[in-house]
Amino acid sequence: MSGSLTSFAAVLLAVALAWTYSSPAPSAAARDATVLLGPVSLGHGGTVELLRAPSAGPLPRLLVQLGRTVDEATLTALLAFMSRTLDRRRPFTVLWDPGAVRWPRVGGRQLGLVRSWVDKHAEQWDSRVQAHVLLLHSPLWRPVAWLVLKLFAPPQPIRIVRDEATADDFTRSCASCTQPKSWVKSSYSDRDRRFGTFSRAWGL
């Protein structure tokens, strides 16, 4: 294994340990929220739902809480729910919470599922999503978080937070969360290069 891949593996191991001891965000039932879609099980203790919570600002929030494992079944359920959310044709924000994950299973088939969905829905997604928030309970997560952000290169405002109260503050105040706009890129031609780099790094 090359030095760069060894370092990459070490980062993943550190993140895996952080994931193991992280606690998930509270469920919608624990907050003053109205559920608009879902919740749907992602397997292994994970759920996804679209909800409206006064504390999170004027827009609905897609809350993705991953379970202990991210596998093909998880991705299939998540991507189907994301498609349903887009079918509403209304703006929303996204809160990604991988707090319960112990180890992600990333292989060629899983990456292919994501790539196929992104190729089909990228413009629609960028026209509706107004902000992304990553809920990371440990700073050890940040290297992998930034790797994922570089892979997908979302054009929307992004905030990495350690608690949901900070996430709420961000989505209450960000400009596009109060005055939604389209974030569709003028070109998505760099996508092949980004996915190719990720695939080589993982040996896929």
Give a description of the structure:
The protein is of the alpha/beta class and 204 residues long. It has one domain: STAS domain (Transcription Regulator spoIIAA, 2-Layer Sandwich), CATH 3.30.750.24. It is 45% helix and 21% strand. The N terminus is likely disordered.
Question: Helical segment tally?
Answer: 7
* Morphology call: globular
Provide the succession of SSEs. Answer: HEEEEHEEHEHEHHH
Major β-sheet annotation:
6 strands, mixed
Strand order of the largest sheet: 1-2-3-5-7-8
Mean pLDDT comes to 83
Beta strand %: 15-25%
Summarize the SSE layout with pairings.
Layout lengths: L2 H18 L13 E10 L2 E7 L8 E5 L3 E2 L1 H15 L5 E6 L5 E2 L3 H21 E7 L6 H11 L5 E4 L2 H10 L1 H4 L12 H12 L2
Parallel strand pairs: 3-5, 4-6, 5-7, 7-8
Antiparallel strand pairs: 1-2, 2-3
Helix pairs in contact: 2-3
Short key terms for the protein model shown above:
204 residues, alpha/beta, Transcription Regulator spoIIAA, six-stranded mixed beta sheet, two-stranded parallel ribbon, 7 helices, 8 strands, 45% helix, globular, disordered N terminus, CRAL-TRIO domain-containing protein, signal
